[in-house]
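Researcher: We're teaching a course module on how sequence relates to structure. For the next exercise, students receive a sequence and then see the predicted structure as tokens, so they can try to spot secondary structure elements on their own. Here is the exercise chain.
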Amino acid sequence: MNDNNETVGLGVTFLREDDTIDDEFNEIAQVAAISPPELERNIVEVDDLNPEDQIKKKLPGLVDAGELVVTLNFDVDGEAGHDDLEDDFNDKAEKNYRVQFPIDEDEEEGGYFPITGIVTGFAPQEIEAEGVFQVQVTITVTKKSEFVPVSELEEVQTSNEGDGMHV
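Model: And here is the predicted structure for the students to work with:
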């Protein structure tokens, strides 16, 4: 058990909900990096011809749930789930994903962030002579996401046997 509150990125996985089996998520292989969404609140400006102290009035507006960006070491054979993400881009439909943190053997640490969104970008990156060919996938988040700790999971599968994760 980790006595610290810090979590490192090693072992974090990215999962996509299966198209045929509800509540089963399959790991997308060869993830190089994940940039989580950043919440941002809009500001509504109020026009007033005679504002107090000549200061423009501003009100808090709606929250933009941001974008999740996943960088993949691209699998040209399509066996790593990368084709599914490209299909999601072409389908233009809202899908469910997860950023899964490792679950320890005592099932005391770990959990996931559920991400619901639309794939709005599928961008091959610069190709270099000695670089790994990568693709960035951008998912525009459409619902609020809150961390689900392992203690709240009904059933935990700590390995990737069966390619799915049930919770």
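Model: If you want an answer key for the exercise: Confidence is low (pLDDT under 50) at residues 156-167. The helical segments are 82-91.
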